[in-house]
């Protein structure tokens, strides 16, 4: 029982700890500042440390556009920044920015949240091609970890509705990942460069190795990259002062099998999150060939993982016992192939045609504790995409960019059970999606115009997109739920638009920006056909064939200051959501519950039964304090509510992250880079959790998220042209915390060491 004295004692300890943390952070900052002062006159400083209005942003208009010509909030993460960050996955790279909130259900996870939208409401794009397929769910996703950070040239995060440029799903924004291009050389085809990278992370005893090779000539250029990642079980922090639940998150037991019987085994070290380890291998290659003035490019990407344990489900308890012995994503594979034809600019017109195919295979292997029957649900998606993009300069002041897009998805779902004692495998109708297969197809035309009334002064922007979408899902007569229908079909037309302006103010370098954009998300196979236990024992989501697109309208207002030594953004937004897909109580054969995996569970169904809004603000600054010394800071706040059409009561919408941000100092010279930074999250109290269950209150201490901060230091030393060494200490104070809506505790004190050899 917690007494008032205990609470007061905890508060006193917390105050003392905060003072120690601030002193530690100030010390780190002071050391970095002193080093910068001592060496400010040595070395050559990279002139691209601060963003400029002339920077070309691919995500702004698909074909590339100057930042001066965009009216939206966009964050850019360069390959140099990714290299300095030394992270394990792309999800971790995004979380380091402080501007992108990332949820995790397991170590092999990472679900980006943009402006209160997550998963199927955030669009992932690789080299101009959408990653989101017909099975992207509205809950939490881990697909971004299948993109290898070593193959990327840059990542751009486009905040707010991007439906005009990229179509469905881009409600909260777009994460645009651009891979490296092989570079042509004025020389005979041959060796251009090569590199090898090795990283070690102590918190997960992780070993990450990467090798790159590039060959090129006048007409042919080729790049190849391969990465192998091996993560052991993750160690959480041991300083437990972020909440009064001192034992929260400790992994005291894990499931094992002894003499053909499931057994709860005692964890020798409860700070080690047993059952979180996984491995991953990635391969990337790109070949470019010139024929005349045309450039042909072949692009191939492969990502394969071993079993990725769903750590949060492996810690679920029921009647004093673990609920699951096995809960793994296996396989979790992604294959990407594309051909692109680039027609260089002629008479003001540039064109690009891209044909691509993506295959994903995601399996879910689950077995209840004490049950000998293991269920495997395998979902395979084949996605074909055709993109045509053009950019045309009507006159120096007017540029039109547009094109057409065709996307087709084919989903095949299967299931089987295996007796773990006998090895006998039996076919099952308990598929995750429609057991007869599903298909979706969309086609779109889009265009966007930028009118530069006065360069670097006054710009108007406007665009439209029209998308036609079809879905058909087939259920066999003997499907798992014995549904009263065999097909589910939808067809709709979705027009969207965007309008924007950027106007220079009287103060030098200050711009006012405003935009209004409509967005949409078509219901996919996951929305319409999924059978899913959302909250264990309390919520079973079953199919609903009568769904319509979600629609949004977003107003953005902000200011941007661009000077030689300062870049600053400040703004706010308001997004109105209609026809919002939420799950609500449903019925199955006239009953409000269903016997699922041996437990009577209430039935829910998705429906366009709500409307809502998301509003918030942001601040971001990058400042050169003195020669070589830079400061960055950002702060992000979001608030959201929804209500059903029959109910006048507003409730918290899911996926709304607590206030979060980052504060850092970085010193850069020709040979060294030092960075001290703090990443922080505000408190998320229990009444701000969504009643939908998607915020995972059961995985939070006391059903809420305490505020937390981590203090971190990293450095990189370019020893010579061929050899570089980097190190970092993250979560220096070894604090124990869990990110909002996550089902696994964050790493404790984490030592990172990286070595890079170039040839």
Describe the structure.
By secondary structure, the protein is mainly beta. It has one domain: TonB-dependent receptor, beta-barrel domain (Maltoporin, Chain A), CATH 2.40.170. It is built from 7 helices and 44 strands. The strands form 7 sheets. The protein has a 22-stranded antiparallel barrel. The longest helix has 35 residues, at 4-38. The N and C termini lie far apart (63 Å).
Q: Tell me, what is the CATH class?
A: Mainly Beta
CATH architecture: Beta Barrel
CATH homology group: TonB-dependent receptor, beta-barrel domain
State the secondary-structure class: mainly beta
Q: What is the number of beta strands?
A: 44
> According to CATH, what is the topology?
Maltoporin, Chain A
Q: What is the 3D form?
A: globular
Which percent bin holds the helix content? Answer: under 10%
Biggest sheet descriptor? 22 strands, antiparallel, barrel
Span of the ends, CA to CA: 63 Å
Number of domains: 1
**Average residue pLDDT:** 90
Question: What features would you highlight for this structure?
Answer:
22-stranded antiparallel β-barrel, 759 residues, five-stranded mixed beta sheet, single chain, mainly beta, Maltoporin, Chain A
Summarize the SSE layout with pairings:
Blueprint: H1 4-38, E1 56-57, H2 58-61, E2 65-66, E3 74-78, H3 79-85, H4 90-95, E4 101-103, E5 111-114, E6 117-118, E7 123-126, E8 129-130, E9 152-159, H5 163-166, E10 173-179, E11 190-201, E12 206-216, E13 220-231, E14 234-235, E15 253-258, E16 261-266, E17 272-273, E18 278-291, E19 294-305, E20 308-309, H6 311-314, E21 317-318, E22 321-322, E23 324-346, E24 349-368, E25 373-395, E26 398-419, E27 425-428, E28 438-454, E29 458-474, E30 487-504, E31 510-521, H7 525-529, E32 532-535, E33 539-542, E34 550-563, E35 566-585, E36 593-596, E37 599-626, E38 629-644, E39 651-652, E40 660-668, E41 672-681, E42 708-718, E43 723-730, E44 750-758
